[in-house]
Amino acid sequence: MRALRRIFLTAATAAVFAAAHAQAATLHVGAARCDITPDMPSFLAGQFSPRVSRGVEYPLTANVLAIESREGDKPLDSAIVISVDTAVVRASILLPIRDAVQEQLPEFDLGKLIVAGTHTHSAPPTVDGHFKQQEGVQVPSDYVRFAVAKIAAAARQAWEARKPARFSYGLGHAVVAYNRRAVYADGTAVMYGKTNDPNFRAIEGMEDHDVNSMFFWDTSDKLLAIVVNVSCPSQEVEALRLVSSDFWGPVREQLREKYGEDLTIVGLCGAAGDQSPHLRYRQAADDRMTRLRKLDRLREIARRIVYGVDEVYEAVQHAKQDDVVVKHQYAIVDIPERIVTEAEYKACKAEAERLKANPDDGRGNWNARIVARYERLKTDPHPTHATPVNVLRIGDAVLCTNQFELYTDFAVQIKARSKAVQTFVVQLANGA
After folding, report:
1. What is the average pLDDT across 33-39?
2. Contact in structure between 334 and 385 (CB atoms under 8 Å)
3. CA dist 231 to 57, 351, 375, 405, 408, Å?
């Protein structure tokens, strides 16, 4: 655990140190978006049991930001950041995206590509075989081919649209995420445990209500793109049988209504492995206020995020820069895996055996993977996990990625020790 903290804390500050004396350069930015909503019934990822979509609540999109710094006509550094409405970014979708982007942009350095999921539980899975295939339901690999073609075309569109731009950033706040682990009198903690239980004592961990925002304008002051970083998975409607980008759908609608229909909104999920938008207590009071505002829960969440963005915009629109340092570093680091205990192994093995009779229950596969991890310890007692990390500095702000569902306290440590003025921590990125 100490090694994991050290690696991420070091990575989060690396770009700031490396570019401390770098010369500022002109900023060039392009942006694009595409619709990746499946055009037929599809399984929906995020739950252990199969769900097949019966319609669309909010469309799924991929939103692309292309950044380059130049000294005269000489390119200095660059990045393409893609936010995808998907549960996670695994190799099953990342590698096809990388291949397709490379085909579209042969000269682009794929190490400078960041692909991050918004962590919706109402989008198609990207791996075949998790659920028994059904007639008339889209095969996940077919969906991947459909989505990747559109995402790569949008990446090329954004890259080719680069033009001189201005940049600003800032910090707002919104109560969106709630720690989802309840602690009881006997010292146990339960995910989504009841808080009205007499033995309930506390919420286990902290919450991060930061709304980190970046704004990019062209030289005529037209707003091209907004990056919005919120430490909460988009999972308010995760149990429905509707395709949905969850709260990012109304967030994008409301921001475009205010700032322009052509605007690209790059939504990035911060470290939120122990967080959820589901209310954990005082639900009656919160629901009453939502009803009085004549909103549903998704629009209420969106209202809060948009307010957080608005308060930043009002302040930072007068602090635009076009001569910012852009420094992008990336690496694949081997970090120590958590060791599965013998007690966990026995419990998971028993559960996997029990669920063999029900192959559609994804908990069986989940438990079987933990069993396999434990058994691999016989030949590899000190396993490591290859982990891609990107650190992108833009001016005095830095964006750092990880492929996990990091608990929020990791992000707070990173932010607290980062040398940047403002640090955007992005999870579920480049997960290969």
Report:
1. 98
2. yes
3. 23, 32, 34, 11, 8
As a whole number of Å, the end-to-end CA separation of the chain is: 21
Residue 407 and residue 272: Cα distance in Å, rounded? 6
| Cβ-contact 118, 83 below 8 angstroms | yes
Tokens read off for 425:
């921590």
Instruction: State how far the Cα of 67 lies from the Cα of 394, in Å rounded to an integer.
Output: 9
Is the overall model pTM greater than 0.90, yes or no?
A: yes
Q: Write out the two tokens for 367.
A: 């438990």
How many residues does this entry show for the chain? Answer: 432
Contact indicator for 317, 355 with CB cutoff of 8 Å: no
Higher pLDDT, 63 or 72: 63
Q: How far is CA 82 from CA 61, 117, 124, 152, 178, in A?
A: 10, 9, 18, 10, 26
Token duo for residue 157: 């569109």
- Strand, helix or coil for residue 76: strand
Which residues of 15-158 form beta strands (DSSP E)? Answer: 26-35, 61-71, 74-84, 113-117
